[in-house]
Amino acid sequence: MTLYDEIQKPTLLLDKATAKANIRRMAQKALTSGVGFRPHFKTHQSRSVGAWFREEGVRSITVSSLDMAEYFAQDGWDDITIAIPANLRQSAGMDRLAGRIRLGLVGESPETIQALGQAFTHPLRLWIK
Predict the structure, then answer these.
(1) Residue 14, phi then psi, degrees to nearest 5
(2) Residue 27: partners with Cβ closer than 8 Å, 6 or more residues away
(3) Residue 49 to residues 43, 75, 107, 122: CA-CA distances in angstroms?
(4) Dihedral sign of CA atoms 27, 29, 34, 35 in order
(5) What DSSP line would sit under the chain, residue for residue?
């Protein structure tokens, strides 16, 4: 019987050395190319894996929900983009978070952009999809 035989639900298995080497390679590639590196943390959703990115100088991240943004903000990440269209029902929570970190959001329509402009009291970065 192997470890794989014991797994009964979706489980992340990764080779730490390979993952860290890949992170290092991508961070270095971005640096030498002169482009920003804002990795998406939706797959690993892990503070531990996030620390591997920090070790390589990464300071800006992307996530896929307000909950995930709050999770990583609690771990000290202060430049976070939520890469799905903004949910106006979460405006109050997003505005509170924008008061603590540099928050980026995505808007899909002029109406959404206008509503976000009216709902927020803190600065934010906005991308139009």
Answers:
(1) -145, 155
(2) 37, 53, 56, 57, 58
(3) 10, 12, 29, 29
(4) negative
(5) --HHHH--S------HHHHHHHHHHHHHHHHHHT-----B-TTT--HHHHHHHHHTT---EEESSHHHHHHHHTTT--EEEEEEE--GGGHHHHHHHHTTSEEEEEE-SHHHHHHHHHH-SS--EEEE-
What phi, psi does 16 have (nearest 5°)?
Answer: -60, -45
Token couple for 60: 């800006």
Extract the tokens encoding 58: 């990464």
Among residues 67, 36, 22, 106, the alpha carbon closest in space to that of 116 is found at: 106
Print pLDDT tens along the chain (129 aa).
776 788 888 887 889 999 999 999 999 999 999 999 999 999 899 999 999 999 999 999 999 999 999 999 999 999 999 999 999 999 999 999 999 999 999 999 989 889 988 999 999 999 888
Place of tokens 């970190």: 101
pTM of the complete model:
0.89
